[in-house]
Amino acid sequence: MSATTEGRLKWSVLTPPAAALVLAVSWGTHPPPLVSALIGVALIGAVLSGVHHAEVVAHRVGEPFGSLLLAVAVTVIEVGLIVMLMVGGSGDSSTLARDTVFAAVMITVNGIVGLCLLVASVRHHLAVFNPEGAGSALATVITLAGLTMVVPVFTTTEAGPVFSGTQLAFAAIASLVLYGTFVFTQTVRHRDFFLPVTASVRRRSQEAGGIGAGTGIVAAGGIGLAENDATEDAGDQAHAQPPTTRETVVSAALLVLSLVTVVGLAKVESYAIEDAVSWLGFPQAVVGVVIAMLVLAPETIAAVRAAVLDRVQTSLNLAYGSAMASIGLTIPVIAVASIWLEGDLALGLEPLQLALLFLSAVVGVLTVVPGRSKPMHGVVHLVLFAAFLFLTVAP
After folding, report:
1. Which pLDDT score is estimated for 88?
2. Which residue in 3, 72, 185, 322 is deepest, having the highest Cβ count within 10 Å?
3. pLDDT at residue 143 in the model
4. Each residue of 47-71: pLDDT tens digit?
5. Structure pTM?
6. Angle at CA 301, nearest 5°, toward 13 and 265?
7. Which of 391, 387, 385 minimizes the C-alpha distance to 116?
8. Measured distance CA(141)–CA(75) in Å, rounded
9. How far apart are CA 170 and CA 176, in angstroms?
10. Where do the H-state alpha helices sit in the chain?
11. Residue 43 to residues 159, 266, 276, 337, Cα–Cα distance (Å)
12. Which residues sit opposite 373 in a β-bridge?
C-alpha cells in the first residue's frame, strides 16, 4: 500500500471518531461564534469522510445499490432529526416536516441534478444517461410530492393544508408502496436501467446526434447493455481493486458514524445559524434550508464526483433517490409520530412553493426524456434552485 493511500485511510478512519467526540462535547450547548467555527471544521471533516466511506461501500456492492445505500442512510438520519426537532423543539413545528422535505426535494431535483448535468456536459460535451431509469425515478418523486404536499392543499375534511387522520394514513401507506416498488425495480426487476451509461454509448450518442438515432442503442434491456459495452465498462472498473470484506465492514460502520455525526453537528450548529438568520432578518425557513444542505452535503459531493467521471446515471440515482427517500420515508414516520405529537401537521405547500414544484416537475421531465443533456439543461435547473433559495430569503 502506498504512502498516499495509507494517509488517506488514516484521515478517513480517524476523522469520524474525532467528529463524534466533538459532537459529544458540544451536544446540548449554545456555542459562541469561535467555537461554532471549530465545530464547523469538524462538520466538514465528517462530510468528507462520509463521502469516502460511502464510495468504498458502493464500490464493493456496485450500482445501483451504492447510490441507494447512501440515499437511504442519509434520509433515515434526516427523519430522526426532524422528529427530534418536532418533539423537543421550541415554537411552532407544524410546518417543520413540510419545509424540510420540500427543501430536500428542491436541493436534489434542481441543485444536485443541475450541478451534475452542468459539470458532466461541460467536461464531456454531453451528459448521457438512461432515460428509462431516470424517468421512472423522476415520475416517482413527482407522484410522492404531489400526494403528500400538493393534495393536502385541496382536501376539505380538515381546515387548512392538513390531512385528516385517515388521509394521512393513506398518504403514508401510498408513500411506502411507491418507494418499495421503486427500490424493487431499481435493484431487482430492471436494475440495468440504473447502471451508468458506458463510454462507448456516449461516443455513439455524440456521433449519431442522440441516443437511439438509428444506432440501435436503445434495446430491450436498456441503454448500453451490449456485450462490448459491458466489457468496456468492466475494463474501466478493473483499474480499482474492490475493497475486501473487512474494509467494507469498517467503512460501512464509519459511514454510519459519519452520517450520525453530520446530522448531530448540524443540529448543534443550528443555534449559530438561527442567530445569524435572526441578525440578518431572514425568515426562519432559511434555517431548515441551511441544515438540509448540510445534511445532503455527502450526497452532493458523491454525485458531482460521479458526474466528473462521466457516470451521470449514478449522479441521478443519488439525486432522485434522495428526494424519493426524503418523502417516502419521512411521511410514514411523521404519520406515526403524529399520534403523540401535539398540534396540526401542515403538509400542504404554500402557493409560491407549489409554483416552484410545478416548474421543477416540468423542467425535470423535459430534461430526462431525451436521455442526454447539454450545459443549458444544467443551467436551467440551477436557476430554479437559485430562485428557490432567493424566494426563501425574500418571499
Report:
1. 52
2. 322
3. 96
4. 788 778 877 887 787 766 776 777 7
5. 0.77
6. 60
7. 385
8. 14
9. 10
10. 3-26, 33-61, 65-88, 96-106, 113-124, 131-145, 151-154, 165-184, 199-208, 227-237, 245-280, 285-295, 297-308, 312-337, 351-368, 375-393
11. 41, 7, 18, 28
12. 127
Q: Is 373 helix (H, G, I), strand (E, B) or coil?
A: strand
Domains in the chain, ordered, with CATH? Answer: 3-393 (1.20.1420.30)
Contact 14, 44 (CB under 8 A): no
What length is written for the chain?
A: 395
Burial class (CB in 10 A: 0-12, 13-18, 19+), 245: exposed
Omega before residue 196 within 30° of 0, cis:
no
Which DSSP letter does residue 156 get?
Answer: -
d(CA 109, CA 385): 9
CA 95, 97, 98, 104 dihedral sign is positive
How many other β-carbons are positioned within 10 Å of the β-carbon of residue 232? 16
Rounded Cα distance between 305 and 283, Å, is 33
Distance, in Å, from the CA atom of 179 to the CA atom of 174, rounded to the nearest integer, reads: 8
Q: Looking at the predicted structure, is the pLDDT value of residue 384 above 90? A: yes
Q: Mapping DSSP to helix (H, G, I), strand (E, B) and coil, where does residue 376 land?
A: helix
Q: Please name the residue that has the C-alpha cell 438568520.
A: 277
